[in-house]
Amino acid sequence: IPVSSRFTVTAKELSEFLNCCDSAGARRPRGLVISTPSNPTGAMLSREEVEELCELCKSEKILLICDEIYNGITYADSPTECTAVSSIVGESHCSNVPNEWICVVNSFSKLFCMTGWRLGWIVVPNWLTESIVKLTQNLYISAPTLSQEAATSCWESSAQNEIQSQIEKYAMNRALVLNVLNEMGLNAELGEISPAQGGFYVYCDVFRFGICALSRATELKTTKWLMNAAELCGRVLEEVYVAITPGVDFEDPESQLGLQRIRISYSRSHQEVQRGMHHFQSWWNSNILSHSNQPIKILSTG
After folding, report:
1. Distance CA 102, CA 32 (A)
2. In whole angstroms, what is the distance from residue 212 CA to residue 223 CA?
3. Which of 42, 180, 187, 238 lies deepest, with the highest CB count within 10 Å?
4. In what order do the strands lie in the sheet with 245-246?
5. pLDDT by position in tens, the chain (length 302)
6. Which residue among 105, 121, 155 closes a domain?
């Protein structure tokens, strides 16, 4: 389903897609997977958008599968109201939001910094319970005991304070990354930088700088073709030892958008993110901006 200019799928995009399916005589989707905040973009749906999407999925009998693994990692410019599907559906005054067509998937991995402990949960409507049980009993016996014991500490007040402290560190790193990307010439108003309202990623479109599939080189207007995103990430890793993920891991291969997009994670310490962005910006200035008319700036290591 094509996403909006804000890198989201709302009831509007889903409705348009269903109309296209009907016009083409194609099968309608039986399910829709969304994540808010999203990986790789960090984009979020507003409360109103969540409610509208839930209602549309109910009327069209589409199973809405909500990945809320980054729920809780949000920033000052994120939607002010709680936009977690699980919370909205659970509110007594939201009886108009159907739960018989909603599944919620979550984990301790991101918000609670327990990546690798392999512990999560899923909430499904009653009519899906038996099918989920049949599926899971053939995949594993139970979640690891040690992981379950560790997870009980996540609800203690001291843990909640630690989580908030970690989010504040993410916010510092996010501000740093966005500032450097701006210095590198990327423009959020042109859709080159995702909203990054939640999670700990920024997704960038670098097509304007000559980074894209070779087959799209003729579409470039202000610069020549240089390389694709996978090649860029490989060179940055090998030459300045900074790991950036190419968009090919997230995009439909046929669209070739993954060859002009990159994802930057800012989940490490502030010092590491600052050092990594300094090296990336220096490499960018020497290898990318030198082929354009953009002014070159160098980030101080502080």
Report:
1. 10
2. 12
3. 42
4. 201-205, 261-265, 245-246
5. 988 888 899 999 999 999 999 999 999 999 999 998 999 999 998 888 988 998 999 999 999 999 999 999 999 877 655 556 766 665 544 445 557 889 999 999 999 999 889 899 998 888 999 999 999 888 888 888 999 999 999 988 889 899 999 999 999 999 999 999 999 999 999 999 998 999 999 999 999 999 999 999 999 988 899 999 999 999 999 999 999 999 999 999 999 999 999 999 999 999 999 999 999 999 999 999 887 655 445 444 44
6. 155
Number of domain units in the chain: 2
**CATH number where 205 lies:** 3.40.640.10
- Calpha distance 194→185 (Å, rounded): 14
- Residue 49: which domain range? 11-155
Of the residues 155, 172, 205, the one at which a domain ends: 155
Q: Rounded to 5 degrees, what are φ and ψ at 123?
A: -115, 120
Which token pair is 142? 């139970």
